[in-house]
Amino acid sequence: MRVLVVEDEQRMASVIRSSLVKEGLAADVAQRGEDALWMARAVDYDAIVLDLMLPGLSGFETCRRMRASGVWSPVLMLTARDAVADRVEGLDSGADDYLVKPFALAELHARLRALARRGRRERPVVLSVGELTLDPARRLVRRRGADVALSAKEFAVLEALLCAAPAFLSAESLLEQAWDEHADPFTNTVTVTIGRLRRKLGDPPVIATTPGVGYRIAGQRGLGQNG
After folding, report:
1. Rounded Cα distance, 78 and 90, in Å
2. Which of 54, 113, 200, 223 is most buried, by the most CB atoms less than 10 A from its CB?
């Protein structure tokens, strides 16, 4: 899951980004609405955390312009203002949810998970294929009833594949969803992570590869060769 954090207060932006990264998410930061607009158009974010009070374009106007330009990533709007009129304007500008400062990071994470599930298509609370289950809220993966310990990036890659099933995801798509803007597209990071996932999840292999196409969850129709 990849999130865009739009917050001009550097300390707050750093705290939010660090908390998301610790949860295994990829997070990019923009400090101005103008920057958020081009970033949201360039990357298909799973969710956007958007502060209301920004220099230049306000959060309201930034959200309106995102929607007008065809950006439909779920938006969680942040504000220190708790007036009903502000909440109404935020929702009417295209935001999907509203969170008043100060807030608990755990609540921010839970609201983002809920928004991501309700995104472009409905997503179940727990993702499962056969004997494999992944619980995003509790950060748990199980296969045949046994817990599987995964790193944050391994978890993010597996979640992306399960959300996309039965479709293939290219290495570039996985890099975009599970890493941030600083990831090097010319490394074998995705290949290495997929290899570790296969070993940890055991046999029969859960992830299938089709050279030149990408990766998908095994056991789906149109499956390529494992490897």
Report:
1. 9
2. 54
Residue 103: C-alpha distances to residues 15, 99, 108, 110, 150 (Å): 12, 7, 7, 12, 29
The verdict on pTM exceeding 0.85 is no
Q: What is the pLDDT of residues 76-127, one digit of tens each?
A: 999 876 667 777 777 788 889 989 988 999 999 999 988 887 765 445 668 8
Question: Which amino acid type is present at position 135?
Answer: D
Return the CATH fold of 2-117.
Rossmann fold (3.40.50)
Rounded CA-CA distance 44/66 in Å is 12
Which residues, 6 or more positions from 217, have their beta carbon under 8 angstroms from its beta carbon? 129, 132, 161, 162, 165, 166, 206, 207, 208
